[in-house]
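Supplementary Methods, section 5.1.

A reviewer requested that the exact input to the structure prediction be made available. We therefore reproduce it here, unchanged from the version used in the analyses.
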Amino acid sequence: MKLSDVNGPRSADVMADVLSFMCIFIEDEKLSTALESKKSAAEQVRALYPRLFKNHKKELYEVLGSIEGCSATEYAASATPARVFNDTISLLQDPTFRDLFPSPAPTTATTSERGLENTEVEGAAPQSSTT
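The structure derived from this sequence is encoded token-by-token as follows.
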């Protein structure tokens, strides 16, 4: 099952698990670096998958299990190496997943600039951008 196949009442729970999973890419600098578009597919696989599979199994099983509609424990118990690899590739290449996270790790400037738009207090004078 792909993220794009999830619908109905499970949607919010699955999104919570997906967001938690995406945080590891922001928190793990080596994973973020592995996703740089300048790298070839082979370089990305070499840098990304071994680290993801060895260091972030818990989060990986949680998100893959959530998408499948089972717990992380149930997913892990029925998983084979090929299934985990294929499910992970399917998730990372799923257009719905990619649309949710167009950039692996937002920059501080991007976050600040967007946040500035929403910080105006009603009745207060708008802040001007002088940068």
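Helices lie at 11-27, 29-34, 41-55, 57-68, 72-78, 81-93, 95-100, 108-117. These observations are discussed further in the main text.
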